[in-house]
Amino acid sequence: MNSIMQAVANGFPSNAEEGDMLVRLRDQLTKLGVNAELRDNNTALMVHKREPGMPVWVFVGFGGAYYSWQTAEQRHPTRDPEGAAKLLAEYTAR
Fold it and tell me: Is the entire prediction scored with pTM above 0.85?
């Protein structure tokens, strides 16, 4: 069973659980020196680029299974916030 189907089978996470996932991601980004801010009652994470430009918005999607950004074209499993932070740090450094 893929992770999206597993999330559906286990029930969707609550807004508080999704907020906790974003807090964990923000904490990992901070460790990497990336500026990120929780927004909208912890329903979104705004990640600032190192150079001037538009920030990257990150959401928890796919039934709580993934962090997603770039209109969900980019995503990473929520069970690995450290890996997601590394990808986002590289993405925002471009």
Answer: no
Token pair listed for 83? 């890996």
Residue 29 amino acid letter: L
Q: Residue 74: CB partners within 8 Å, gap ≥ 6? A: 68, 87, 91
What's the CA dihedral at 27, 9, 14, 29 to 10 degrees?
Answer: 10
Q: What's the rounded Cα separation, in Å, for the pair 9 and 83?
A: 25
pLDDT, tens digit, 9 for 90 and up, residues 57-91: 999 998 899 999 998 899 999 999 999 999 999 99
